[in-house]
Design brief:
The chain is mainly alpha-helical. It has one domain. It is built from 8 helices and no strands. α1 crosses α2, α4 packs across α5 and α5 packs antiparallel against α7. The longest helix has about 40 residues. It is globular and about 55 Å long.
Length: about 200
């Protein structure tokens, strides 16, 4: 079991590195993988949002240990974990449905929710990786500018996944970027508003 987990995370980190450093080649590999088994969720996206939520849990201990007692810090850490995981998890499913709907209605594309899921799962990588780094190292806050790399990843993924013509790629890439960034953020804010104990 431990060996399986070790291999899973090794493959996860390898795929994260490849999608960030060599997106064109990696998208071609992704396009050849089967969609039905949803490995892009179980072996990639879910573990990545789990790591992001875990660093949200650690963040209060790293940043606020001088201000709060242990019990208060633990409470904030648990709340941060919940907000991070919920916003990423539900943000993913809302954004995939929204992008699928918009691409059909506005760009005349064929509805394919599994393909959209794969695209958003991998294109969300910069957001999740930078979130992890900035929660562990607050001095890295400037790296949030690299959220715009999402546009590059979507752009590169449109040809292998969709064989999309040039005229639609720009609109689709910008639309996907807006949804990937905005929807989890909106869900996080709503979650905090309706459950004011979470901050």
């Amino acid at each position: 079991m431990r060996f399986v987990n070790k291999m899973m995370y090794k493959n996860l980190f390898k795929r994260v590195w490849n999608i960030l450093v060599a997106p064109t080649k990696t998208w071609k590999e992704i396009a050849l993988e089967a969609e039905d088994d949803k490995k892009y969720l179980n072996n990639y996206f879910y573990p990545l949002i789990g790591l992001a939520a875990f660093t949200a849990f650690l963040n209060p201990f790293i940043m606020k240990y001088e201000e709060l007692g242990f019990s208060s810090t633990m409470s904030v850490a648990i709340q941060s974990f919940i907000v991070s995981f919920i916003s990423s998890f539900f943000g993913f499913f809302v954004s995939t449905r929204a992008l699928n709907y918009c691409s059909v209605r506005w760009l005349g594309m064929t509805s394919d929710i599994h393909k959209i899921e794969r695209l958003i799962a991998y294109a969300s990588t910069p957001v999740l990786v930078i979130s992890i780094l900035t929660r562990l190292l607050s001095d890295f806050f400037f790296m949030k500018i690299f959220f715009f790399y999402v546009i590059v990843l979507v752009w590169e993924g449109t040809v292998p996944l969709y064989s999309m013509e040039e005229s639609k790629r720009s609109k689709f890439s910008v639309l996907a970027f807006i949804l990937i960034i905005a929807i989890p953020l909106v869900i996080e804010k709503l979650f905090i508003i309706f459950l004011p104990g979470l901050k």
